[in-house]
Specification:
single chain, about 350 residues, alpha+beta, 2 domains, about 25% strand, globular, binds iron/sulfur cluster
Length: about 350
């Protein structure tokens, strides 16, 4: 059954999840960005803050209302909790080897946007790990660089949530339509103050989400992207992109599905050693190092690798696209390179 919570109800939901022993992580305003951090209550949420995005552009801005989920994707994704930037694998103290084990808490992710809900499923398909409890926030506030609708990943939350919230502020107050997706979600909702949803609550929420579909700043060309990338291997366009691409790897770091790692060994003078993994990027020159040197030495080859894998060969490996249309790689590219524009250019300049 759908119910309606107010802010106190949302706060109670955070309390219920924390009482269950979970680390509740959600959006917070920090360092002039909407980042992700552990929440102790609903007052930690970025009430009244939105964002303004564009190619190579991200700014927080004050909203005219007190929405807590009124922002599009920020620089961090849930990847940093499911697949940390650096993780010890094994250590040695001179007397033996010790496996690092898994000391991650049980997470509850609160405020997961539909694009990121899809990204969590794609990432967990690869890196595994324990399933987090997910409180999704349906998208009613798409950004200028968002294109999840054209990737089939939003603005409505797809499968994989325990609870889905739709935030609304109007003359009826500040409230959240809450829908449970699992028994755990229903059990959590049953423990918080809420009223039964009226038909109009559901209709308004559906209208708000549908309106978001038409307000996305971008769209991926409606083509078979796998075929497009497969047939673009020798395109002259890769050199054109490379004239702008700095091969910095920002796009891979912010992408919620990029999962590549390097494995490193470190030792100290006391004889202790540690093997760890850290996020790596296909834009690093050493990423393609085989005997004799790197295989992909040019920026053109590295950009082609990233985009071809993300939109094309990911289908062959994992049966799905590697892109959910969150737009982070566009906002956080210092050169403002836009994956939807590059796909359109490869397709012959056609924009959707
Ligand atoms: S490729 Fe870009 S838009 Fe697609 S999921 Fe990664 S960061 Fe988001
Ligand atoms: S596309 Fe942009 S973010 Fe990615 S490596 Fe090139 S310059 Fe950096």
């Amino acid at each position: 059954m759908d119910v309606v919570l107010d802010l106190d109800g949302l706060d109670a939901l955070i309390g219920v999840l924390r009482e269950g022993g979970r680390a509740v992580v959600g959006p917070v305003l920090r360092d002039d960005a909407i980042t992700l951090a552990e929440l102790s209550s609903a007052t930690d949420l970025p009430s009244g803050w939105g964002v303004e995005t564009g190619p190579g552009h991200y700014r927080v801005r004050e909203r005219a209302d007190a929405a807590v989920f009124g922002h599009s994707a920020g620089p961090q994704s849930w990847k940093r909790f499911l697949h940390p930037p650096r993780r010890a694998l094994v250590s040695s103290d001179g007397e033996g080897f010790h496996s690092a084990g898994d000391d991650a808490p049980d997470y509850a992710f609160l405020g997961v946007r539909p694009c990121d809900l899809a990204a969590i499923a794609k990432l967990r398909q690869i890196v595994g790990g324990r399933a987090p409890f997910v409180v999704a926030a349906q998208c009613t506030e798409p950004g200028e660089v968002c294109f999840c609708a054209s990737m089939g990943c939003g603005p409505a939350a797809g499968a994989g949530y325990d609870i889905a919230l739709t935030e609304r502020i109007d003359s009826g107050g500040h409230r959240f339509l809450a829908t449970s997706g699992t028994e755990d979600g229903a059990a959590a909702l049953a423990r918080v103050p809420a009223r039964a949803a009226a038909p109009n609550d559901i209709t308004l929420a559906e209208q708000d989400v549908e309106a978001a579909r038409g307000r996305m700043g971008r769209a991926m060309p409606e083509l078979d992207l796998r075929d497009l990338l497969a047939s673009s291997r020798d395109s002259a366009h890769w050199e054109t992109v490379a004239e702008r691409c700095l091969t910095c790897g920002n796009c891979t770091m912010v992408c919620p599905t990029c999962f590549c790692v390097s494995v490193e060994d470190t030792t100290d003078l006391d004889g202790n050693a540690e093997r760890s993994q850290r996020w790596a990027s296909c834009f690093e020159i050493d990423f393609s190092h085989l005997h004799g040197g790197a295989v992909r030495t040019s920026g053109a080859a590295r950009y082609r690798q990233w985009m071809t894998h993300k939109l094309g060969t990911w289908h062959d490996q994992f049966g799905t696209s590697g892109c959910v249309g969150c737009g982070r790689c566009i906002a956080w590219c210092p050169a403002g390179i836009d994956i939807t524009e590059e796909a359109a250019a490869l397709a012959g300049g056609k924009r959707p």
